[in-house]
Amino acid sequence: MVNSVEPSENVVTELPVRKELKACIFFCFLSFMSGAVGAIYIPILSLFLKERLDADWWQIGLYYALTAFIGFTVTQYLAKLSDYKFSRRALVHFSILSGAVGCLFYAYSSSYWLVSLLGVSLFCISSVANAQIFASSKEYALKKHINSVEFSAYMRISISSAWVVTPPIGFFIYTATGQYQEVFLTMLALYLIFGIFCWKWLPNTNEDTKKQNEHMVKNKVSMFAILKDRSVFLLFVACTILWGCNNLYVIGMPIYIVKEVSRGQFDSLPGVLMSITAFLEIPAMFIATRLARKLSIKTLQLLCVVFGVLFYIGFFIAVHAYDASEIANHTYLFKIFQVLNAIFIGIFGCIGMVYFQELSPKYPGQATTLFFNTMNTGVVTAGVIAAFIDKVYNGSYEYVFTYCGALALIALILILFVRKV
Description:
Elements (H helix, E strand, L loop, with lengths): L18 H21 L2 H11 L4 H28 L3 H21 L3 H15 L1 H16 L4 H30 L2 H22 L5 H6 L2 H5 L10 H33 L6 H23 L5 H25 L2 H4 L3 H29 L4 H29 L7 H17 L5
Helix pairs in contact: 1-6, 1-7, 1-8, 3-5, 3-16, 4-5, 4-6, 4-8, 6-7, 6-16, 7-8, 7-12, 7-15, 11-12, 11-15, 11-16, 11-17, 12-15, 13-15, 13-17, 15-16
């Protein structure tokens, strides 16, 4: 386990130094692994459902809906237990074991219902590891008097790096072997490596948190009690909307460009735009960690949403400023706008979780999990809105960017009413 000797001076260090640097690197590695196991199968998931499980369109939609519903319920319940009853370390081990077993179901089962019910449940339990590791790092940083905002930010950067690196690896494995089974077996190997490191060195950090929250056992506090805090609830809604905007853009932008504008002229543009954003997100996160020393978390959150609003409005203007034949000569505009998108997603993904943690310092497990659940609810929200746009506008996704801009503006207004920490 990581050494837990208290520092001699009761001060907050700007960066983890000396022996604490090892702990920072260790937690960042665990964050990378937690992101890798969740990202490696994403590129082939829809293909897997369609080809291997022979799922119809409604079954694919049901699969994602079940993932969001089961994921939210299970992870929030286990997060509540982590804040007053169970060891975070034990929960991480249990979730990793669940993920490993889930890989076997996905690798060897051809039953849609078995995968959608049991497999999804196991993977949802496995996602608990991510939030619990972040909660552990928060508690560890506080004990060591390390700047917890920067500590969490570096871990968030590690997850983003995993999402940049591992999806292409997963897709390469599938294209090289032609087998979905190989992807899930590789994912199983990653879970085993992840589990060994957690079992060997992950510290148990939540003993003090459990003592502080003993009243939750006596009073039988609901796992949704954290949402009774007005600021937490508003932030939850705002973050759900923002993740919904991001996913709606990811759904609609490629369809609009390839099917409605490009018509074979620049079909690779969507992939190029997403790659630019992914590449620039990481330096944006580093910048966010520096700004966090001078600006409040609320100010940073508002700032990143402003960049998001500007991005969607700018994209909308660029789309409508030229007809299809002219856009081919102005693709550089769409690439430039990705700088705004990268700043938006980079700072939001880095600071958003910290904001939840600071609003609910007594419940780090639930607060961290709640942030990650806004991603799931955002995916469902984006799917519903995309279906609505498809229906109302006769299959055209031209107005996706208008909806994204309007929704991001609503989220900006909501965050204005969240208390400053």
